Amino acid sequence: MKIGIASDHAAYNEKSEIVKFLNEKGYEVIDYGCDSENSVDYPDYAHILSKKIVTEEVEKGILI
Fold it and tell me: Across residues 27-31, what is the average pLDDT?
């Protein structure tokens, strides 16, 4: 299963742990950002992940 994941800066560390966990369980995880703890706007990443789910580029999505 292909899972997309995205977060804002406040959840960057948690997202990284979830990606690691899912990879260990054999899931293919595509990280749509953010890529650091620098401040970002949450809706920007929610929009990216939502589009990937709607276009079926990923089967499921996790947004933090």
Answer: 98
50-54, Cβ contacts within 8 angstroms, sequence gap of 24 or more = 52/4, 53/4
Residue 52's Cβ-count burial label (10 Å; 0-12, 13-18, 19+) is middle
* Residues across the chain: 64
pLDDT, tens digit, 9 for 90 and up, residues 16-28: 999 999 999 999 9
Amino acid at 6: A
Q: Which of 38, 32, 39 is nearest to 7 (CA)?
A: 32
Give the rounded distance of the alpha carbon of 41 from its chain centre.
14
